[in-house]
Amino acid sequence: MKLKYLAALPLIGALTLSTYAAHATTWGWSLGGDGNVSASGTITFGSNPNASSSFGTTVTPVSPPPAGYPNPPSTVFTSVGDPLSSSLITGASGLFSDSFLGLSNVAITGVVPDNFAPHFAPDPTIPQSFSYYTLTDPTVSYDNLFYVNGQSPQTCSLPPAPPNNLPPGNYGGYFDNYGVMFTLANGDYVDLYSNGDIQATELGNVPVTLPPYGVVVITGLGPDYTSAETPASSVSAGSMLSSTKPASQAAAASARRP
């Protein structure tokens, strides 16, 4: 399992019904709070064709792994279905800034389509839409899933293991712990993800001390895991004006990265 390092970013959003696509919905959002990163914009999302009641039940071995992975294990895995409560993000617009990287009001132009890359962990709670930004550096993952109820399900459930004995995952947020991969007008990419608000451990569920959202900025130099000092202060969403609702309510999300 791999860790995604964190940026402390409060996220504020509001939902409105889009008029140009059947049952598509737009979500206005803004984030900031770590002293470096700030952003705002909208995402467009709709029904997820991979949402399934089979999510979390089955993982399929893939051997040998697809070409392109550096030093892969003999077997990688794919999961069956995405969470029933998930919607699929299909578009995005807005502005992104990161003062540490010298980025100021760079336009968000869209999202990177899912590539459904097999993952390294035999964990059925990793969504089917799990994707790697690039197979040659499988450290940044995404799935473009959105949870309109703000309660993303647990998407990493493997128990702690040596040498780090990390807990199996966190719950909650408008994204899960893989998040949405934005494209920027300058050719860079931004992964916005959730760290959740409930941490699942072998001793039970405990509050998460991590900030609720984070980002990874991918430039020509590779991924930048911009860490942050200031804890997030607020997470909220406006009223949903569409009659479309998730198929079920779930609880959870995770800061751990397969």
Structure, explained:
The structure is a single chain. 0% of the residues lie in helices and 39% in strands. Strand 3 and strand 4 form a beta hairpin. It starts with a strand and ends with a strand. The protein has one domain. It has no helices and 20 strands. By secondary structure, the chain is an all-beta fold. Strands 2, 3, 4, 7, 8, 11, 13, 14, 17, 18 and 19 form an eleven-stranded mixed β-sheet that branches. A three-stranded antiparallel β-sheet has the order 12-15-16, with no helix packed on it.
Compact summary:
With 258 residues, this protein is an all-beta fold. It has no helices and 20 strands. The model is unreliable at 1-8, 16-22 and 227-258 (pLDDT under 50).
Question: Which SSEs are present, and which pair or pack?
Answer:
Elements (H helix, E strand, L loop, with lengths): L1 E2 L7 E7 L7 E8 L4 E11 L11 E4 L13 E4 L7 E12 L4 E9 L19 E2 L8 E2 L2 E2 L22 E3 L8 E5 L4 E6 L3 E4 L2 E4 L5 E7 L2 E3 L10 E3 L18 E2 L1
Parallel strand pairs: 2-19
Antiparallel strand pairs: 1-20, 2-3, 3-4, 4-7, 5-6, 7-8, 7-11, 8-13, 9-10, 12-15, 13-14, 14-17, 15-16, 17-18
